[in-house]
Amino acid sequence: MVNNHFDKMKNRITTVLCICFFFFSTSCKKEADELIMESKLASECTFDERKTVSRFDNEQGTVTYWQEYDIYMIMVSQPSGNTPVGSLEPCNLPAEFKKDNLKVIFSGELKQTYSTEYRLGWPLKLAKIKLAEN
User: Fold this and answer.
1) Is 77 exposed, middle or buried, given 0-12, 13-18 or 19+ CB atoms closer than 10 A?
2) Which domain of life is it from (predicted)?
3) Which contacts of 70-73 are long-range, i.e. CB under 8 A and separated by 24 or more positions?
């Protein structure tokens, strides 16, 4: 009877440890993936020479593919800070995020537009981007 109770306790402890290890390891992988994504975003951008108009953090948006222009935009419908409503044209959107209707959370810099140019959206240099949790 005592051995049976001891075996049950040992099984429970083993199960709890396995569950804790699983959550810890997936959490570390997620953090590592985000760090890798930030390092990919640190590359040069075609908008680097432009003046930064504003900076923002953790905005929600939807990646949208505009087939007629062969370009991916980030659409913002409810900005929370310095981000305009409408379309943003990211110069450094990673390939992993080039999926139509993908919900994302992103940070970055809005860049200057010139009166002599026609743009589909505000020039955007991403600082961070990750999938939005549903």
Assistant:
1) exposed
2) Bacteria
3) 71/120, 72/97, 72/98, 73/120, 73/121
Structure-token pair, residue 66 = 């505009």
């049950």: which residue's tokens?
A: 8
Q: Which residue in the block uniquely carries the two structure tokens 């083993």?
A: 14
Instruction: Per-residue pLDDT tens, the chain, 134 aa: give them.
Output: 555 655 655 556 555 444 544 444 444 445 445 544 554 565 678 888 899 999 988 899 999 999 999 999 999 977 776 667 789 999 999 999 999 999 999 999 999 999 899 889 999 999 999 999 86
Fold of 52-131: OB fold (Dihydrolipoamide Acetyltransferase, E2P) (2.40.50)
Element (H, E) at 11: helix 2-41
Closest CA to 76 of 100, 59, 90: 59
